[in-house]
């Protein structure tokens, strides 16, 4: 069995700025009114506002050491500039990147800040925003038809974090669809990255039990396996890439994987 641990707090702070910078490159010259296929209720402009707004919101939680949630409507800067002028939106994103990186770094990983999980620290928010930005940047890349790349260690950590989030939601909210991800007789899921660097251990085993599911890094047989390049496994697992797109291979019980993907959501 392989073990995993989060990346460093400084790395997450770096990535908040880096992922926004890469998003700005993706949006440069794009038609911001086009619909995002993976988020069909949003245009590219709306996606960009969501991403910047999420960082602005979490930045305020950390900067103020918030003990309660601060509604986004109480943070005027989180809405972005008036209108969808590309230059104004780009400038706002650049400012957001610098602000988020500085606040998270200056606070330090252990600084107290409200969150919707049981981890009430700035470290949680730096990690959460890293992966929020990285996955939504994939949405922007898909919408604009440009290549999408993510560092292997970030992609692996994004899968770890997503599994932890779904596990938390399963425990905390019995009404959420994640609560249905249980049942000892269901079998198990295996994620297998075929191109990960040696030593990264980019394989996962998800097992269902009567009290919920558990997961761990490891190479073990399962009822169904999702196998392919690490970034493609991530995108399929986050439901950004259809299983039939041919970028990742499904081996075994496809219905079990569909069962997971239909219920592993939150919000």
Descriptive overview:
The chain has 267 residues and is α+β, with helices and mostly antiparallel strands. Helix content is 46%, strand content 13%. Strands 5-4-3-6-7 form a five-stranded mixed sheet. A hairpin with a 2-residue loop joins strand 4 and strand 5 (212-217). Helix 1 runs antiparallel to helix 3 (86-107). The longest helix has 23 residues, at 122-144. The chain is globular. 39% of the residues are buried. The mean pLDDT is 95.
Compact description:
With 267 residues, this protein is α+β, with helices and mostly antiparallel strands. It is built from seven helices and seven strands.
Number of helices: 7
Give the H and E element order. HEEHHHHEEEEHEH
Classify the helix fraction into a percent range: 40-55%
Distance between the termini: 32 Å
The rough form would be described as globular
Could you give the topology of this structure?
Blueprint: H1 9-27, E1 35-36, E2 39-43, H2 44-63, H3 86-107, H4 122-144, H5 152-172, E3 188-193, E4 203-209, E5 212-217, E6 224-228, H6 230-237, E7 249-252, H7 254-263
Parallel strand pairs: 3-6
Antiparallel strand pairs: 1-2, 3-4, 4-5, 6-7
Relevant terms:
five-stranded mixed sheet; alpha+beta; 267 residues
């Amino acid at each position: 069995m392989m073990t995993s641990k989060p990346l460093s707090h400084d790395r997450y702070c770096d990535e908040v700025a880096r992922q926004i910078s890469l998003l700005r490159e993706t949006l440069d010259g794009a038609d911001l009114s086009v619909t995002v296929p993976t988020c069909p209720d949003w245009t590219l402009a709306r996606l960009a506002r969501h991403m910047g707004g999420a960082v602005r919101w979490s930045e305020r939680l950390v900067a103020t050491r918030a003990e309660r949630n601060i509604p986004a409507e109480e943070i005027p800067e989180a809405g972005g500039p008036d209108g969808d002028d590309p230059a104004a939106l780009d400038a706002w994103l650049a400012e957001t990147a610098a602000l988020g990186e500085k606040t998270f770094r200056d606070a330090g990983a252990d600084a107290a800040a409200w969150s919707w999980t049981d981890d009430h620290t700035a470290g949680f928010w730096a990690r959460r925003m890293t992966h929020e930005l990285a996955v939504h940047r994939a949405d922007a890349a898909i919408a604009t038809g440009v290549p999408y790349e993510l560092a292997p260690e970030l992609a692996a950590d994004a899968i770890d974090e997503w599994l932890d989030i779904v596990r938390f939601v399963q425990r905390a909210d019995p009404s959420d669809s994640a609560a249905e991800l249980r049942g000892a007789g269901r079998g198990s899921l295996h994620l297998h990255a075929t191109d990960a660097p040696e030593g990264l251990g980019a394989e996962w085993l998800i097992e269902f039990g009567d009290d919920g599911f558990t997961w761990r890094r490891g190479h073990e047989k399962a009822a169904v396996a999702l196998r392919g390049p690490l970034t493609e496994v991530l995108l399929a697992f986050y439901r950004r890439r259809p299983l039939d797109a041919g970028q990742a291979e499904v081996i075994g019980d496809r219905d079990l994987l569909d069962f997971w993907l239909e219920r592993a959501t939150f919000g």
